[in-house]
Design goal:
Elements: H1 12-44, H2 48-63, H3 65-74, H4 85-108, H5 113-142, H6 146-174, H7 180-202, H8 221-228, H9 231-261, H10 266-274, H11 276-293, H12 295-315, H13 320-356, H14 361-389, H15 401-429, H16 434-446, H17 457-528
Length: about 525
């Protein structure tokens, strides 16, 4: 049966399903980075420093689970639904249950609040892995066509933006009162979105890059460390880590900034709303620029613009005009960079397969998730430690000057420095070009290591039946010829026997005739006398 590479575009309806699936993923981590710290300090009454330690330790510890989970997901059997779609559905359900307990388990219990928070937070690292790694593994197996990957990366970011926009605009308004009931509305409403969008969305996508499932494509635990040794992967992860820490640190500290410096958390909603302008612009131009100048340079431009936005906000942090402008600029840069980061991840997956012959979509996605978690841990811990060190007092009407400076450093100064470092790392460290990726992809196709689209199963069955029919006809013909030969042999043998019997009969007849003649002659002689 011939193998055929399908270079057709991913259908529009499937792209919509992919968009919906990604929207469903967003509320989980965005709510944690935006409101979890202030919820537990101002509503539940826990210590900011102890929570900061939780963020740092738990994210690094549960980040270790990512490569392990990726290893098992890559070895998960290919079902009728594919390899990653069933696990995404399962992961969504168990993650939502875990997530609700994380937010309200300590509230519902009168004792052991820190223990409950620590355990549920650590468990989230595992349950979210099943969901998130499966989702991030979908893009490489939906297509290997570079332009389609760029488009799917853009769609993924649109999903993230739409989900993020809903949370960023409505979240501050819903919890502005700071009551437990307001957080019930926010969290349970968000979890309903996660369940519906993730499950129904993933049912509409298709995994095209098939797995042959042979031992050559599989990798071992040791291979994970080998993958990390590839420079493109190290550099991409480090740059993404720096950008992630910068943006998530700002996100986590924003609730404190607008509550204790600007005096109104609802202003956070307005600033998040205006940021949509930069977000939409970034999503639109990212794939266009990527197809012209390549993913690397679009990613770099995104980092530069993001750093510029943080720098502007650092100059005059309490001016609403500056905040609006900086918010648009940061969102534009962030979208340019993050939109292409998933395409870069897919290219790195191709690079690993080209170098090692191993199919490691989930491994790269899990390592990426590990980096993301480390970033979340650092980004969540730094504001907490800064608040604790500067003397923050929860719900105090007036905070000290040191607290104000610490909060401003968390939303502007430190993120600016991190982005500058990320720019230098990626410019000088990432050498994988689009031309390199195209050449590797074409060579992999020629080797038939991955098949994008096999023949229609119906045609495969017809071909199999036709082949079997031909074999049966050949066998029947052989049997006919063998039978004919045997019949000819029997006929010849029968004719020989018939001749022999005929000759014997003729000899016997002659003998009888002679005997009769002798008797007749004897009788004649006797009577004649």
């Amino acid at each position: 049966m011939s193998k055929e590479v399908n270079k057709a575009k991913v259908p529009f309806g499937e792209k919509i399903s992919y968009l919906i699936t990604n929207i469903g993923n967003i509320p989980l981590m965005l709510l944690l980075s935006s409101f979890f710290l202030i919820f537990y300090t101002d509503v539940v009454g826990l210590d900011a420093g102890k929570l900061a330690t939780l963020f740092l330790i738990s994210k690094i510890v549960d980040g270790i689970s990512d490569p392990i989970m990726g290893y098992f997901l890559d070895r998960f059997p290919v079902t009728k639904m594919g390899k990653f779609r069933p696990m995404l559905i399962l992961g969504t359900i168990i993650c939502v249950i875990n997530y609700i307990l994380l937010w309200f388990g300590a509230v519902w219990s009168s004792v052991g609040k820190y223990v409950i928070v620590y355990i549920t937070y650590l468990l989230l690292g595992w349950t979210f892995d099943v969901m998130d790694i499966s989702l991030n593994s979908l893009l490489p197996v939906m297509t290997d066509v570079p332009k389609e990957r760029n488009t799917l990366s853009m769609i993924k970011m649109i999903g993230y933006v739409l989900g993020g926009m809903i949370i960023s605009i409505l979240g501050p308004i819903i919890v502005a009162s700071g009551t437990l009931e307001s957080y019930y509305v926010l969290i349970f409403g968000a979890m309903a979105i996660v369940l519906i969008f993730s499950i129904f969305g993933v049912l509409g996508v298709k995994e095209r890059v098939s797995f042959k499932g042979n031992e050559e494509e599989r990798y071992g635990i040791k291979d994970l460390f080998r993958f990390l040794g590839f420079k493109p992967i190290i550099v991409a992860f480090l740059a993404t880590l720096l950008l992630g820490v910068a943006t998530q640190m700002r996100s986590g500290a924003n609730a404190y900034f607008f509550t204790y410096i600007m005096g109104d958390m609802k202003l956070m909603s307005a600033v998040s709303g205006i940021a949509v302008v930069g977000t939409v612009l970034g999503i639109i131009i990212a794939p266009i620029l990527a197809n012209k100048i390549g993913k690397k340079w679009v990613f770099v431009i995104g980092l530069i613009i993001t750093a510029l936005g943080f720098g502007i906000s650092w100059i005059d942090p309490t001016s609403m005009g500056v905040l609006y402008a900086a918010s648009v600029i940061i969102s534009l840069g962030q979208m340019l960079a993050m939109t292409l980061s998933y395409g870069i991840q897919a290219d790195n997956t191709t690079y690993v397969q080209y170098k090692t012959g191993k199919r490691a979509e989930a491994a790269i996605a899990s390592l990426s998730s590990f980096i993301s978690k480390v970033g979340q841990g650092i980004a969540g811990a730094l504001p907490g430690y800064i608040l604790a060190l500067t003397g923050f007092v929860a719900n105090a009407a007036v905070q000290s000057d040191a607290v104000h400076k610490g909060i401003i450093a968390s939303v502007s100064g430190i993120p600016f420095v991190l982005c500058v470092i990320g720019i230098l790392v990626f410019i000088f460290g990432y050498k994988l070009t689009q031309k390199n990726v195209d050449e590797m992809t074409e060579e992999l196709r020629e080797k038939s290591d991955s098949v994008i689209e096999t023949e229609d199963p119906a045609s495969s069955v017809e071909e199999t039946v036709e082949t079997a029919k031909e074999k049966v006809e050949e066998k029947i013909q052989d049997l006919k010829e063998s039978a004919q030969e045997k019949l000819e042999a029997i006929k010849e043998e029968s004719e020989d026997r018939f001749e022999a019997v005929k000759e014997k009969a003729e000899e016997s007849a002659e003998a009888v005739k002679d005997k009769v003649e002798d008797i007749v002659d004897s009788v004649k002689e006797k009577f004649g006398e």
